[in-house]
Amino acid sequence: MNYLESLSKDHPNFTKDIEPSGFSQTLQEAMTSIPNEHSSNSIEQSSELSVIRPEPVFSVLNTPDPPSPWIELASSMKEKVLTRGKQSSSLLHFTLSGLQGLFPVLSWGRNYDLKSFRSDIMAGLTLASLGIPQSIGYANLAKLEPQYGLYTNLVPPLIYAVMGSSKEIAIGPVAVISLLVSSMCQKIVDPSVDPTGYKKIVFTVTFFTGIFQASFGFLRLGFLVDFLSHAAIVGFMGGAAIVIGLQQLKGLLGLTHFTNKTDLVSVIKAVWLGLHQSWHPDNFFLGCSFLIFILVTRFLGRRNLKLFWLPAIAPLLSVILSTVLVFLTRADKHGLKIIKEVKSGLNPSSVKLLQFTGPYVGESAKIGVICAVIALTEAVAVGRSFASVRGYQLDGNKEMVSMGFMNIIGSLSSCYVATGSFSRTAVNFIAGCKSPVSNIIMAITVFLTLEFLTRLLYYTPLAILASIILSALPGLIDVREACSIWKVDKMDFLACMGAFIGVLFGSVEIGLMVALTISFARILLSSIRPRIETLGRIQGTDIFCSKRQHPVVSLEPGLMIVHIGTSFLCFMNANFTKERILTYVMEDEELQEENNEGKILYMVIDMSNVMNIDSSGIAAVEEMHSKLESFGIQMAIVNPGWQVIYKMKLARLVERIGVSWIFLNVGEAVEACLSYKEDNICA
Amino acid sequence: MNYLESLSKDHPNFTKDIEPSGFSQTLQEAMTSIPNEHSSNSIEQSSELSVIRPEPVFSVLNTPDPPSPWIELASSMKEKVLTRGKQSSSLLHFTLSGLQGLFPVLSWGRNYDLKSFRSDIMAGLTLASLGIPQSIGYANLAKLEPQYGLYTNLVPPLIYAVMGSSKEIAIGPVAVISLLVSSMCQKIVDPSVDPTGYKKIVFTVTFFTGIFQASFGFLRLGFLVDFLSHAAIVGFMGGAAIVIGLQQLKGLLGLTHFTNKTDLVSVIKAVWLGLHQSWHPDNFFLGCSFLIFILVTRFLGRRNLKLFWLPAIAPLLSVILSTVLVFLTRADKHGLKIIKEVKSGLNPSSVKLLQFTGPYVGESAKIGVICAVIALTEAVAVGRSFASVRGYQLDGNKEMVSMGFMNIIGSLSSCYVATGSFSRTAVNFIAGCKSPVSNIIMAITVFLTLEFLTRLLYYTPLAILASIILSALPGLIDVREACSIWKVDKMDFLACMGAFIGVLFGSVEIGLMVALTISFARILLSSIRPRIETLGRIQGTDIFCSKRQHPVVSLEPGLMIVHIGTSFLCFMNANFTKERILTYVMEDEELQEENNEGKILYMVIDMSNVMNIDSSGIAAVEEMHSKLESFGIQMAIVNPGWQVIYKMKLARLVERIGVSWIFLNVGEAVEACLSYKEDNICA
């Protein structure tokens, strides 16, 4: 292009024979004469125009320049800081309000009363009775010893209670994250070969997860949570639930050998082999009967809300009953698998287990990013939906910071990645929690368990843990939502199914990659091919609508109105837009040759949808203008976005198109074109 | 969410105490009563309303369903086929017009006359005199023997002449593609160690390039060319030109040892080492003097267009002069590097060199994709800009098919990747070519050279080839365009600089990756944070504008108008949009408490920019509606896109919002809200 330009610049006569020179000259004369004419004569000629056209103060071109991206970023930052310390008169006050922002406990703690405390104690105990067996099961899923589940149910809830702003969320290990951690970390170090090495990886991953979460929050990258679409999450969760369920077959059937892979085919193969080698029906019958017990209590709890505590304590009850049963019958001697030793005592420090050198740091950081995003997605979804029921808003960025600190401190005290659990949050809510104190009560209960009751867990059968996890899975599989996604949006359903099938037959990462790719591809596709539609007038009004959508609208003779349906006219769609509009013009000319109708003289381009433009877009508009000019068609632009007008001014495109050919709305542009046309015909 | 839903479904009294039940009931009553009232009373009450509201035929909701994506895809395919065979009455005619589509030579060949032929002979000979030395130089850059450059300047132009639709484009090897091929292929096989293995890779890459190009064309993936933004191409080309120039230092300085890497640091290090070991000033002086000669002729050619042939034949002249000089002085015995043997004769077959098994197939295909996209980007840019000067349109997809076939057949006859060259196309154009016949003339000249003149190239110094390539580079570095990009769009400039620095200090692939990443990130960023702005009325009109852009507009009391500035309300921005709108409402309530003004009763959401929506978007609109309802605010939706209305109907969202709360334009919605408000106040 630049070569051509330099050619035509150096040799002014170079492009002369290319343009229909006679015509373009007359057109240029017409163009320069029209604005003056317009400002003086035409308003007097057509009184209608002067009524409808607004005062020149309101012209698109008279607006101030839009704030530059840097200024806008700075002002949004400032706004955030200022709202926090809005009424700060002194430095002390400012510091206090800053501390209150970081530790919400300082604000709600002052109004906390005995009545709320009573509710929180009830909720906390209910939570603990559900959380203790669940966390032992999830530790098993994460391929860690049982006490690590309890550790993770102790420190992170305490940190969240002082830093978090959600009142209902129940913090601890959850199923999907446990699966994520084990399926990705065991690719680096096999836990059955080198348990300490595996733990090192897990805690390092937890540390990185915390670091990423906190920095997402500090850098206000809250939108990262939105990168996974709702549909993708539905598919991913469904697939993960089935994968987790399949992993429980090991415990439920009492298999000794099992696969490290998580995909359907490998697991079914492993189960098939296991059933042919050695399995103990006792495990299966015990697990199944308690699974049925838990499901029945849940059914009863749903039928009668007063019995809400029944499904909540059923897992604990199952653990106690089955442990007593095994202790009495000594069934572990006949092949029933039991937990055996659970180390007692408070969380040991794991600072020395963190690895920041060596070959696995990069890999750990990568797993950390994935865990950070998935954990935040789950926690924010849980937190938001319960906050919206209670009628308050959660600040996503603040939540990220507290989740981050909770996992960083967790990684130093032998905890793996914790987040908000959906099922336990619901129990906490129904049990009537009033504040994060319920999390503290639960943590105290877990602490007491760790100190005094671990020896009682010796005889707890592994099959019971499997059945507790299995009973929590149906809530993750949301067939009804998948159906409604299919009904509303087929492409969303594709993302949903992609994630589901990817997790089920590939691995967790493959499922995530598929979901992300489909979701992003969709956004790009919608940018690549914007809708370019011709508009027509609804008779008797000043409303202009798409001819294709409303076939009854009437087109104006001698002018064409085209609407550009993208918010960002950029390199990906500028060329397409230009060519589509020029094709419309040429198709129309062909049609007119056949019908002997009037030629198009004005092309009104409705750019009210275009909020931003890049240099390719500017070039496309410029080319369109000169091309239309060479056809003898005047281009009018309607209501481009603020940034668009600003950049068109910078590129001197406004001058080339002509200030009087840029309008505030379609009606005004059509009016002006029609009146010019009449003037021309009269003259 | 589903858990909550099931809870509230199973226990109808579950959410009772959460909502301000008394209020929502009255609101619901009000909502069900309003529509009826509206259709009977309100029109009579306010005569203004009945004038402005269009006939119910024109309601947004009465339109037919939009065509499904599959139907739209099918109809666009059908359209393409039908336009090609529009007037086909018989099968024969249909086949003929299909053949004409594939081989445009069949259409223009019939009207071809002697006068055009004379022009084409002149243009073809000029082209050959520039192309022959250039292609030998580019073969050198691609680390192939000189004859391969000539081969590539023979077969692909012939194929393009019968299949291509551009009249001006000059086909052959080009600088950037030669650099791409050598820099990527030598990572697989080192050409100095295993020349045959390297050739195998190069031809396989060429074959894949052709396959990808042809399939892009057949699958109508023409938009792939738009994936590289204009800004990114400017930066990439500039960086590539400097890298190519640095590579020429080897020939210009007559160095024996040189680096295989292309980045600035490695090359400067290699040159430094070379200068300290062994270099021959003869090479440098010879190369520089002829470089100056070529540049002076170009300057003269630009000053006087009649001398256009001078820069075109200067390279050939340099080759002849320098060759004669070396032959006479036998300077090659004193360290001057010469080409030595150039194999004579027509292209040999290279079918047996193609490798579709073995370890390098995947790698070759990857390089093929990159070459295909870059080659097409360059060719389409060249073709389009000259076609637009001549006033005809190029069909990008058709061009891709012909480029693909040209490279497939090229790869079978010892050619590497060919594409349209910018500098030679310009020469072809200025020399007055009328049709692709000039490419045929050039190919014949190259054929004669290969058959009879290769022996004369024995003494051609390598430094001359370097200076010919160096002289072609300034056209690739477009500082003026980079400046204008900086002026108009800072983010575009970032992409430009990213590509430039990536190519210069990293590698060609890194530069491309950086450019692609920045460009895509920008599109995603513009989707993540749409502009949500409050609108106000321009006094005395029915035009509503952004309050921020036009501070003079007046807001209507008791209602808020918000505009959503994205064309795709999807998972990435739905949550943000919802929360931003709710924040506006809450900020406004705070403001009103201070000022004791009237509360907002109506929220008009202008969705005229929203052309598409996904399930997350639907959910966000739904949540927004119920949230606003709980605040006692009625939501009205204005002019959502066709797809949006369709999906809102499918999700039963239209019923929930209320059919009478969806309007065609903002004016109408405001009118309706104001009249309801008056009615309520009167009642």
Q: Helix proportion of residues of chain A, in percent?
A: 55-70%
* Quaternary: homodimer
Which chains share the greatest interface? A-B, 111 and 112 residues
Shape of chain A: elongated
Strand order of the largest sheet of chain A: 4-3-5-7-9-10
- Continuous helix count of chain A: 28
According to DSSP, the number of beta strands of chain A is: 10
Number of domains of chain A: 2
Radius of gyration of chain A: 34 Å
Q: Give the integer mean of the pLDDT values of chain A.
A: 82
Low-confidence region ranges of chain A: 1-57, 82-88
* Secondary-structure-derived class of chain A: mainly alpha
User: Per DSSP, what share of the residues of chain A sits in E-state strands of 2 or more residues?
Assistant: 5-15%
Q: Main beta sheet of chain A, described?
A: 6 strands, mixed
Distance between termini of chain A?
Answer: 40 Å
